[in-house]
Structure formats: C-alpha cells, structure tokens
Write a structure and sequence with these properties.
By secondary structure, the chain is an alpha/beta fold.
Length: 268
C-alpha cells in the first residue's frame, strides 16, 4: 500500500513557529537538491550537525527525497540514513524491502529494514492500522535528536484536505498536514508539501533512480486511491492550481488553529 499520512501534533504539544514562516516558501522551477536544502533550512534552521532519517518506502516520492538528500550531505554537513518498514501485506513486500536496501546502498545511505505485523481493531481500516504500526516502528528506531523526514507532497496534502471534508472535520482536521510537527520526542518534517508529484518524478528519472510500484495503489476500494484516480483528475482539469490553493487554505486553517490554541491556553 502507498504510505498513508503520518501523525499530527501530539496532545499538549505546540507546533513550531517555523511552520508559519515557511508556509509561503513554494518551489520556483524544478525540484532540486539546492531547493531542498533551502527548504529544510527554512523549516528547521541550519543543517550542519543535524541527523536526518528518511521514512523510505522505496516508492518514487521517498526515493527522490533520499537521492536529493544524499547529494547534499557533504556540503551541508549532516548525517543521513533511512528506515524502511515492511508491513508484509503484499506477496512482493520482501522483494520491495530488498530493492529499497539496494537503492539506498547505491546512494551510499545506510538503510535499516524493519519487519512488522499489522493488527486491525474491529472496524479499523487496513490503511489506518498500517499507518499506526508503521509510525510506532519508526519511533522505536529513531535515535535521540534525529529528525524524521517523510516525502508527502502537494497532491497528498490535497487528498488529505478532501478526505477531511468528507469526514466533516473541524479546524484541526482541515488544517491537514503541518510541515513540521513535534513527534516522538523529536520533529516530523515534511519538506515536499509544496512540490508536485510530477516534479519528483522528473527528478527521479533525470537521476536514473529505481523505485517500486505497489499495485494496491490502483485499488479504488481505498478512499485515497479513489480520490487520486477518479476525483483529482477532474478537479485539476478544471482548476489546475487546486493543489496549491487548497494547500494555502490548509495553512490558513493551521494559523487559525494556532490562534484558538493560544486563546484556550490564556483562558485556562
């Protein structure tokens, strides 16, 4: 299955002010390592001495992120590694894990392969159960002070917003995914939320990267896949900038949520 969305801010934690400053930082031109370095500095500050860990599925998006980061390590002087979680939900899962490890070695990046089992609670979707199990595993394998980076991109954010609307979510749900969130004693960073999937694919092809394609990504029984394959093409044909403008709305809602949290804390 395609990686589902990560966790939000844990109860009692406040989102860093860096989010607000970085919301307007959008790509100009092609996705490239230099752009990514500037993006990360706008989100977390200087990169020198940082330890970065990529949640690496072996798919196109995380492969592009890992490759771009691998080319920045020496000039930006940060440590880099990857974690690949094998959910064992597909017959090809072990082969994908091996392929992810091989690709990481080609990039000279250490990649730890983690095998987990996914248990579903009554009424819980497979996507939700896999997401929860995956992030628990990632949290267990992070080292102190290591930042976790995911490759969620612009269309992922649009899908998240639409799903939240269909669920009748309030300000918290409609604010979608923050670019930086406190998580598991560190920060969860999503530097690609302003980048289109097509940009990542162009970069991956220019670099000659290899990635795995999960056939379950075509299964329209899953809500996210239905949106991706049936709904989004129609929306983007009519409103080509929908992913950008909806992302802007999510940023406004995050700001409103932050103000509400401040008022609540003041009242308490």
């Amino acid at each position: 299955m395609r990686r589902a969305l990560g966790p939000g801010v844990r109860s009692g934690a406040s989102t860093p002010d860096l989010n607000a400053a970085a919301e307007s930082f959008t790509p100009s031109g092609r996705f490239a390592p230099a752009w990514l370095a500037a993006r990360l500095r706008s989100l977390v500050g200087p990169l020198s001495g940082r330890r970065l860990c990529v949640a690496y599925s072996g798919g196109l998006d995380s492969s592009a992120l890992l490759a771009a980061l691998s080319s920045l390590r020496r000039t930006q002087r940060f440590a880099l590694r990857a974690l690949h979680v094998n959910h064992a939900l597909q017959p090809e899962a072990s082969a994908w894990a091996r392929r992810a490890g091989t690709q990481a070695r080609r990039l000279h990046v250490r990649c730890k392969l983690i095998e987990i089992s996914v248990a579903r609670a009554t009424g819980e979707s497979l996507e939700a159960a896999a997401r929860e199990a995956r992030y628990q595993a990632l949290a267990r394998h992070l080292t102190a002070g290591e930042l976790l980076l995911t490759a969620h991109h612009q269309e992922d954010q649009l899908e998240t917003m639409l799903l939240a609307l269909m669920r009748g979510s309030g300000v918290r749900g409609l604010s979608a995914m923050p670019q930086v969130a406190p998580w598991a004693g560190t920060l969860l960073v999503r530097p690609l939320l302003g980048v289109a999937h097509a940009e990542l694919e162009r970069y991956a092809r220019r670099r000659g990267l290899r990635w795995s394609e999960d056939p379950s990504n075509r299964d329209e029984r899953f809500d996210r896949n239905y949106l991706r394959h049936r709904v989004l093409p129609l929306l983007l044909r009519r409103w080509p900038a929908a992913a950008t403008t909806v992302g802007r709305s999510a940023a406004h809602l995050r700001e409103a949520r932050g103000l509400l949290d401040e008022l609540a804390r003041a009242a308490l």
